[in-house]
């Protein structure tokens, strides 16, 4: 993981700290996007399975696999869709755990490097505690 590389340097300058922080946030966003994508896939699987359960098993249907449209029968496609529907919640749960760990990693990084996250154009709510600490101000998008 990036954690071992990020936490090594205590003598980093503000740009390096900011770039590492942005990398962590981007990784967190990617995980959240993947979770959303898998949840949408799960909903689509449920809808398609409900639709195909009322159809004759020998009826022709088409399935997209790796960007290629494949012609099969409902009897061939339905078990694969049901298997995927059973496995998707496990994948979503694993990604949720990764997302939680990434959030903790970001919080630890913020505490380690004394980062102040500035949202919008408001003034910082807390005054600097010590003049000897090096604070990094990060503007949220």
TrEMBL record:
Residues 129-141 have a biased composition (Polar residues). Residues 120-141 are annotated as: Disordered. Keywords: Chaperone. GO terms for cellular component: prefoldin complex. GO terms for molecular function: unfolded protein binding. Pfam families: Prefoldin_2. GO terms for biological process: protein folding. Binds specifically to cytosolic chaperonin (c-CPN) and transfers target proteins to it. Binds to nascent polypeptide chain and promotes folding in an environment in which there are many competing pathways for nonnative proteins. Belongs to the prefoldin subunit beta family. Heterohexamer of two PFD-alpha type and four PFD-beta type subunits. This is Prefoldin subunit 2. It comes from Papilio machaon.
